[in-house]
Amino acid sequence: MKSLKQLFAVLICGIVSSFAYAQTAGMTDIEMINLVVSYEMNQLCSPASDNNPNEWRVKETLMLEIGQGVAHSYVVRERNKLLGQFQMLAQKNRWKIEMFQLHALVGETFISYPKKGTLTQVVDLDAAGVYKYTESIPKIKWKMEAGQKDILGYNCQQASCTFRGRQYEVWFTTDIPLSYGPWKFQGLPGLILEAKDSKGEYHFTAVGIETGKNDKKIQFYAEPIRDIKRNRALKMEKMLHKDHGAFAADYGVTFRMEGGFEHMPVPYIPIELE
What is this structure's pTM? Predict the structure, then answer.
């Protein structure tokens, strides 16, 4: 029997819905990029089970762009998919599902945007479309730990926290006194170069740091993106993985797979548990 990964890693060709967006694709400049940090993100997508003795993990590239007052974190593959969707919408004003969303997405995070003290998260909800929510920048209660180690030539100090249902160990360097990190991590007196949760389901490790160049800017989508509440976005993503076929049908997209596999639950391990 094929694994869930094999069954659902297929292209869905020609499936579209009349999800309306603006006719013109584009981006809006926010501010100049001063520093860029690239991370390897190691994510657990499916644990080992009796049917599948091997766990399924993916490695992605996550980028952190830091400006004078705004930070932007995104998974490269996720962002490229959104840019492609918006480009297609500009040409056809149609929404197309290109492939199954096999595992939980991290989403795209803008810290101190659209204003200081707020965080904007862009989330891709498959057939339902792209949404965004804004919340106050979370106040993470960090605990300083005794550990120290070298990452990319920087002396890093250990810290820990409990955030959104997960316990994390992070390593930050005051050699770069910028209070940011991958995803929604922030609030330490230095740049976070590594973060991992206690379950081993999410692990971010910095693999490169460079100063901004070529006048590149942090950018936000110019297309109108629907607003949503954070809790609602989490519930919708959970529903998507529970029954992809039924979820898509609710938004005007119907498709069939052999054996009714479009209704098979897909393992769902979100980064936010609460």
Answer: 0.87
